[in-house]
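Study this one:
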Amino acid sequence: MTAADSTTGILSDPKHRVQLRRAVIASTIGTTIEWCDFLLYSIVTGLVFAKLFFPASDPLVGAMQAYAIFFVGFIARPVGAGLFGHWLPAGLRRHHDHRGVALAGLHQQGRIARV
């Protein structure tokens, strides 16, 4: 029995179009927000992070170090998504996503409290 034979997964044509439109709109909004986040972070990396995290370095070397860290994060996200998306079942992926967001929020809250 294939998924097409199942009666629970069949949508009528109008409902399918509505679901497809919702998925396209949601993914477009999410991608736009993510790329705006990367754009803003890359601007801040060049202007602020070099001076903040590498004050003893030459300004050019500090900027290169900050962009190297940005590059590692930029590359690690799709690599991690591919690895964990392949190895973890859907329920565990959702659980680990929530845990990751919670840990990032707690870490940021601790950083703000210390300032």
User: Anything to note?
Assistant: The helical segments are 13-53, 59-87, 90-114.
